[in-house]
Specification:
Mean pLDDT: 95
Order of helices and strands: HEEHEHEHEHEHHEHEHEHHE
Radius of gyration: 19 Å
Low-confidence stretches: none
Distance between the termini: 41 Å
Strand content: 15-25%
Oligomer: single chain
Shape: globular
Largest sheet: 6 strands, mixed
Number of helices: 11
Number of domains: 2
Number of strands: 10
CATH class of the largest domain: Alpha Beta
């Protein structure tokens, strides 16, 4: 298979009707982003970002691309970079899963693990330090947390969801999605709200690091270690468009991991823990609703977590 065909496999992921949620006549559909080539939604983010930056003349093959990640984004950028001819450097907090690290190395990228006590903020600072003073014609820091191309990458996913719903004559009532960098939630929500103005959106944060929840409820924000990698980086990203967040709730990491495992047994789809968080909130909604349509997202694949299948990250105080 040609490299172009492999890159063309990003996106256009299927919609899955969640059969195991049967409550009050409600229906839940999940966009299966874990079926992207490297096993996560981040393939969509980084392919879009690299293509857009190339079209703007900001990067070109042969350059070094740098970014920070808890793993999914790092693997996605490493893969896209390898296919398109870039050298890739990934900065990642200590203690992420072996599978994530192996993917990054497999695609030829260099991995720098940063101090665990600083979590993702430490990786961001290390990346800034790494590129500082270097020739910008040779090295580029993508900075997925702050670069609004992240959010823009998800407009097309929103359009894919709209096309599916319209093909089935379905009008959605709710969109439920976990918030990490916020790009995925915000990009999709902007599209859905434009097409379906009555839709309500529900953002999800992990209870131990929930900056948007704290802000909306006038609470003091504190970050604590947790086991929901991809969420709760310790800061509110500029990719989170608060205007399209109608409500925000928090989830417990252990319950999310358990819900993921239950779903895998029930529906034989290998999804990751943040997908479990989405399912928990969808279920809570469906207990309160009647005959509604709920849309959610399955971010990544369960195989990326096999080395930490207990849900415990010892480096982070047991999650």
């Amino acid at each position: 298979m040609s490299e172009k065909l492999e890159l063309d496999q990003v996106g256009n992921t299927p919609m899955h009707r969640v059969g195991s949620i049967k409550l009050n006549g409600n229906t839940v559909f999940a966009k299966c982003e874990f079926m992207n080539p490297t096993g996560s939604h981040k393939d969509r983010t980084f392919l879009y970002m690299v293509n857009k930056l190339e079209s703007e003349g900001k990067i070109r093959p042969g350059m070094t691309l740098v970014d920070c990640s808890t793993g999914n984004g790092g693997a996605a950028l490493a893969w896209v970079g390898k296919k398109k001819g870039y050298d890739v450097k990934i900065f990642m907090p200590e203690g992420m899963t072996d599978e994530r690290k192996a993917q990054i190395y497999e695609y030829g990228a260099e991995l720098f693990e940063t101090e665990k006590s600083l979590f993702l903020n430490g990786s961001v600072q290390a990346a800034h330090d790494f590129v500082r003073g270097k020739d910008p014609r040779e090295i580029y820091f993508l900075d997925q947390g702050s670069n609004l191309l992240n959010k823009a990458a998800w407009l097309e996913c929103g359009n894919e969801i709209v096309r599916y719903l319209e093909s089935q004559d379905i009008i959605p009532d709710y969109f439920v999605c976990s918030i990490g960098t916020g790009g995925t939630f915000s990009g999709i929500s902007e599209v859905l709200k434009s097409r379906f103005p009555n839709i309500s959106t529900v953002g999800i944060e992990v209870d131990k690091s929930a900056p948007l929840y704290a802000k909306k409820n006038n609470l003091e924000f504190t970050h604590a270690p947790h086991n929901m990698m991809g969420l709760g980086a310790g800061a509110l990203s500029s990719n989170t468009n608060e205007l399209v967040v109608d409500d925000v709730v928090t989830v417990n990491g252990e319950r999310s991991w358990n819900r993921m495992k239950q779903f895998i047994v029930e529906e034989k789809l290998g999804i990751g823990p943040t997908c479990g968080a989405n399912l928990l909130v969808c279920e809570e909604l469906c207990r309160m609703l009647q005959d509604k349509i709920v849309i959610t997202l399955f971010f990544d694949s369960s195989w990326k977590y096999k080395s930490r299948w207990s849900g415990i990250y010892p480096e982070y105080f047991g999650g």
